[in-house]
Amino acid sequence: WQSHEEKTKLANTLREIFDAIEQRFGLHFHDDTTIENYLLLHLRAMIERLEIGFSVRNAQAYDQKREFLMATRLTQIAINIIENNYGISVEENEEGFLILYFNLALYRKKKKNGLRIAVTNGSGRPEGIILLNKITQARIGIPDVITFIDVTELEDIDESDYDVIVSTTELTQI
Length: 174
Hints:
- The protein is 59% helix and 7% strand.
- It is built from 6 helices and 3 strands, in the order αααααβαββ.
């Protein structure tokens, strides 16, 4: 299906994308072979589709651009390189698919690096500390950043600062 030269060109293009992302944002994806393999397979098919003018509908492409902002920025870097290397124009449906792959790459990196976890409860600080200790024990070896937040402080937090908020009480404030 694909000649050695085409495989090499695609691998070099992906390496160029990863290098540009690392240079721009300090994110290193070279060691994630799962994402590398996923992207190589997708890019190969995507480039073939675009070269023959075949479009695959992605009904959520617009929403993906708005929902996954960092992945969208990474995808824009990738698209610039792909368009330059292959002389094609990447359309919005394909952009949406690439956003999903880069969002997965970000998730995998975040998972490997640990999560930002907020812990709160309505029964006082001692119970919260017990909950915090249970989370720490369950995730030994994972470099999470765990913060205890008093229930009275919930109105003042920015929930986007945390990947997970754990609570033993209903969180109507946020």
